[in-house]
Write a structure and sequence with these properties.
Blueprint lengths: L10 H9 L2 H17 L19 E2 L1 H7 L15 E4 L4 E7 L16 E4 L2 E5 L9 H7 L1 H4 L2 E7 L12 E13 L5 E6 L5 H8 L5
Parallel strand pairs: 3-6
Antiparallel strand pairs: 1-7, 2-3, 4-5, 5-8, 6-7, 7-8
């Protein structure tokens, strides 16, 4: 909202600047109310543990990083990989793009990720992650270690407009089984079954 003018401004100062402009506040309220009322996506809001994220809703990567506390008003660590370890929150966050092309991904990142059914997902770790590594063991033994993996999935990297595609939040998942190493192929059980409207899109990518 502030562009580059927020440099040196605290969150409290930015909040005050916004609230002092009643016209902008009213406009924002109208836009938000309209978008919520006319959204074509029906989000599952039963998982209050992950608020402000709603299960099966769509978010940009920036929105996800803010919602998970990895980004804030003054600090935005670089995040380009498809995995994110949030030690303080005990989350491993997976960003998955189902439809990969050689033009956009290197041979070492053409992971075999796909939806198996309404409640199972096949996912591959990064190519340098071995079964016995601390990261690999954290994935496999996440319940024992108190971690909750979170899965965000999109069909393709970009929209027809050229903008980055948003991710659908498939929610928390549990380890079921794995094979291989470097990368590890893991089957996750989804806590919240994928609705049909998303299954139709994501299942198409199994044969890609």
């Amino acid at each position: 909202m502030w562009g580059t003018q927020h440099a040196g401004m605290s969150l409290a100062e930015a909040d005050k600047r916004l609230r002092d402009n009643s016209v902008v506040v009213d406009d924002l309220r109208c836009v938000l109310e309209y978008r919520l009322k006319h959204s074509p996506l029906i989000a599952n809001r039963s998982a209050t543990a992950f608020e402000p994220l709603a299960i099966h809703a769509a978010y940009t990567r920036d929105e996800i990083l803010v919602a998970l506390g990895h980004w804030n008003f003054n600090d935005r660590p670089s995040q380009r990989e498809g995995v994110l370890h949030l030690k303080d929150r005990q989350h491993d966050v997976f960003f998955v793009t189902l439809q990969k092309t050689e033009d956009e991904y290197s041979p070492t990142t053409m992971y075999e990720d796909y939806l198996i059914s309404h409640n199972q997902f096949h996912w591959q770790s990064q190519s340098n992650t071995s079964e016995q590594s601390p990261t690999g063991q954290r994935y496999i033994r996440h319940r024992e270690k108190g971690y909750t993996p979170l899965l965000f999935v999109r069909e393709s990297k970009n929209l027809p407009s050229g903008l980055s595609s948003p991710y659908h939040f498939l929610g928390p998942c549990r380890y079921l089984s794995h094979t291989g190493s470097r990368p590890i192929s893991i089957i996750w059980e989804l806590e919240y079954p994928v609705p049909t409207r998303l299954l139709r899109t994501m299942a198409r990518q199994i044969a890609v």
